[in-house]
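Worked example 4.2. Below are the chains of a multi-component assembly; read each line carefully before continuing.
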Amino acid sequence: MQAPPQRTDRHRVRRHPERAAYDRERLYAVLDAAFLAHVAFVVDGQPFAIPMLHARDGERVLLHGSVSSRLLAALAGGAPCCLAVTVLDGLVLARSQFAHSVNYRSAVVFGRAVEVTDPDDKARCLWRLTDRIVPGRAADSRPADDGELAGTRVLAVSIEDASVKVRSGGPRDHEADLALPHWTGVVPLALSHGIPQPAPGSESIPLPAYLAPSTDP
Amino acid sequence: MQAPPQRTDRHRVRRHPERAAYDRERLYAVLDAAFLAHVAFVVDGQPFAIPMLHARDGERVLLHGSVSSRLLAALAGGAPCCLAVTVLDGLVLARSQFAHSVNYRSAVVFGRAVEVTDPDDKARCLWRLTDRIVPGRAADSRPADDGELAGTRVLAVSIEDASVKVRSGGPRDHEADLALPHWTGVVPLALSHGIPQPAPGSESIPLPAYLAPSTDP
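Applying the procedure described above to all two chains together yields the following structure tokens:
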């Protein structure tokens, strides 16, 4: 039996509280914008932080891996976990080293994982995880067969507590530094997608529409 | 008194051992290539994962933050921590959903943090952390003054155990799937730097050479 979730203040942001938010709408936006999660949990007193692909499914966050993964097994046992995602938006260059910063959107979720065992739910979760790689891809690939389903563990992390932290905008130098001659500003950062490289056998297959370069600026 | 480091197998990669490495050279390369770390540690049985800027300084990994941060104080107390960095290199699209993957370079470091208190060492660490934002920037900004040094905590994480995991190359579909008609290949990913946006007051200052667009392909 696992203990019921405890309401705590573990998710309260102390540093730069003006950057913090606690509403689900902003939490979901950051979880959906981030491509990768780092999941922390404890085994025999030792903290682990593991990079994992995640996908939000309503109020739960999906993870997956091999049934032979000891770390996934530890998570599936209902140990408390902390899932963090961070989207980097820019480098903030100020006149003082102290005022240098980074623009980012981050979310930290505290919860526990439960294993998804219902076959239909599990297949749907894997579909969603595939579509996180490229939206539209799940429908254009072979779904998991029974053997692959049996070899994969899917976990759903409940969101017990969570916080979002965002920094945006330019540098905020001290008044006394404003006369210093250094260039200041922001260098935008983004995870960019390059030109798709076909694997052997796919050179003559037209590039799927969902891989076409975005027309967004 | 903190316990001496224990040699354990906590860092041994079980899943996809062919992707793993344990030598310092490759570890340092991944730590240096990643812009952001996620640091896991335990407070009262609760795991935390916090995004932090990191900088490698020889055999130690530097972190910093405010002296008023309770999380940094917990880390500085010598609690075991796990620092993970991940560089995303590509999306791997296979014929089966199961064979989809991501190309990446990740490193996981197990160690303990000690606070850097020597004033000269501390100032040098903050210089290095500033230069992680943009190489060359530390020399073109005002170093921390005594008040800023006093308000900042610098931690150095010792590397007790560590592992590197790398996936590269194209999709590896099962033989039975090779006749399926889906496009397969790799979509390269990279954290790209956009055009620097000057802050008010810097519009007429020439862009520093270290911010000029790279001539690399």
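Take a moment to check your reading of the output against the notes. Chain B has one domain: 17-169. The first strand of chain B starts at residue 20 and ends at 21.
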